[in-house]
Structures are given as C-alpha cells and as structure tokens.
C-alpha cells in the first residue's frame, strides 16, 4: 500500500509447550522434563530475548509477513511478529499482526493456516531447536504441538475482548477497570493459605495504598510480594514486570510517566520501542532523557515517511503516476540509511545530546546512529 494508513491490530494466541534439560551434579540430564505454560511464565524475558535474536535483518519491520504465500495477504498485511503473552497465569505464543483494514473471514482463516505452517515447519521449528540458557539448565519452547488440544485463536475468541495499545491520547476501555498507568497483580510469597489471595495494585500509588495491598494479601512487606501479572495502558510496558521486580521502582516509573503530557507519553513509547530496554533502571533513566531523541508522531510507517520526504521535495505523491509506486520500500531504505525507526507511536531517532545516567552505567550500550 502506498498511502500511510492507520493499521489494524490483530493478535493470534496458541498454547506453548516447554521442556527443560536440568543441570545436576552429574552433568546435564539426558531426558527433558516437560514444564507447564504456567511455569513458563517465569522465563518470559528469556523467551522474548531468543525471539529478538531470531529476527532476521531481511525481515525488517514486516517480520514474518515477508514470507507470506497468499498474494492477497501479502498486500494487505503490513507485519507479522511472534511474541509471548501472559493471560490468566499462563504463557501463550502470540502472533501480532498489523494489516491495512480488517481481515475478512476468509483472509483470517488463510492467515491462521499460514501461521500454523510457520509454527510447525517454519519459524517455530527453528525456534524450538534453540536452547534457552536458564539457571537450572537449558529450556526449549515449542509454539506448536501435534495433538488435538492445540489451537490458534484470535484474542477476541480466547479472552472475550481485545486489549488495545495506549496511543497516548485515550485509555483503552479494557484498562479502565485499573486506574493506574501500570497495574500489578500481587500475591504474598510467605502466605501459606490456599488459594492465595491476590490483589491488583494500581500505580502510581501512595504509601498507604501500597501498605493496604500488602495487608490484603497477607504479606509482610513489598519484598514479600510476587508480581503474577502486569498490565499497562502503555503497550511497551505490558507484561514487562513479573515475579520479584522492585515494586518501589515500578511505582517511581509510574509517577514519572503520570507527569508526562500526551505527546511525551507517545514519545516515550516510541523510544522504548526503538531501544527495546529490558531493564527497569533503563526505563527510569529514559524518563529524564527524552530530549536525546528526535520524534515525529505524525509518521508511523515507512510508506508515510517516504511520502513525507517526497512531498517536502515538492513532489505530488497524489499524482496517478505514483499509483503503483513502492512507497514502503523507499521509506524502509531511507529510514535505515538515516538511522530512524518507525513505530506505531511515530518515527524516532537518537540525536547527539548526551544521555544523563541516574541508575544505569554510562558504559551501557546505547543505540548509535
């Protein structure tokens, strides 16, 4: 598509299966031990890191969409990117899809069939053969299982609703049940009662609210609290904080973000997507360093960037001569050459202003352009 259009977002969910070759005193075990989708939640960040490493340069921003066989889908789908997502305490394999317009029933079923092939014989086959180093041994994760219980469902079919990313302008309806920018589902590590009491802690929060949450779950202190689920209206932060992450620091991050304007929130989302920070300290430092990045929230795709460049040069891109022009390809080349990334929150580029380190080391790797 040549024109810069608003992209439709769709997510497909499927169950994951994991195996661990545990490392013992006598060496690595020969027989793997299966672990459940609930146990896999503990290794979310490890799995996401391997997904990131498996991304090939030739796939660019389109991800697995570059391998689509169906000609209709190849033109209609902008991107297909594998990831994982926690839902009701279980870790699911997810395909995030961006398309030009809503897919009809036939297109959706064709997409599901193509993703099933990728899970079983393509991308997924290669992924499940890659070991993930964990503290106790090596973890292997499969996005596909050859049994009758395997499924691929849309987010709507699985959950009954669709979570929408926060665009910096309006809070999605599904997140209005949680009043904070970040919401943590907590339980106590020391509480012995079963089932354990859980409570949503909405951040930012003051000390009294946090103490009441700890008391409700039968905890002793924040150090005793375990994060079992994390939701955020800022999509780059959704499901990023789990288990024993420092809740005080997460609250500090929420307080800083709550002081941001709508435009600053969009810029923060764009930069977080650009840098792909995994550590909370990096995310906190970024709140004081947004001026280290140039951001244009009006352009959200390579095609849109190409058109903006041509129009700035005085070229009428609405001329019929451009009806079949590859704006996307030109935009992709220009963005790469200029060290710019397009995100759903606008284009972003690192500028030359020095980064001020508060919690992180000045020697940590930063994106250079």
Structural class: alpha+beta
Helix content: 25-40%
Uncertain segments: 166-179, 365-369
Average per-residue pLDDT, rounded, comes to 84
Compute the number of structural domains: 3
Number of helices: 12
Element order: H for helix, E for strand: EEEEHHHEEHHEEEHEEHEHHHEHHEE
Percentage of β-strand residues? 15-25%
Tell me the distance between the termini: 28 Å
User: How many strand segments?
Assistant: 15
Largest sheet: 5 strands, antiparallel
Question: Cα-atom Rg, whole angstroms?
Answer: 22 Å
Molecular shape: globular
Task: Explain what you see.
The structure is a single chain. With 369 residues, this protein is α+β, with helices and mostly antiparallel strands. It folds into three domains: 8-159, no CATH class; 173-258, no CATH class; 260-369, no CATH class. Helices cover 30% and strands 23% of the residues. It has twelve helices and 15 strands. Strands 2, 3, 4, 7 and 8 form a five-stranded antiparallel sheet that branches. Strands 5-6-1-9 form a four-stranded antiparallel sheet. A three-stranded antiparallel sheet has the order 11-10-12. Strand 7 and strand 8 (137-142) form a beta hairpin. Helix 8 (247-258) packs parallel to helix 10 and helix 11 packs across helix 12 (327-337). The two termini are 28 Å apart. Residues 166-179 and 365-369 have low confidence and may be disordered.
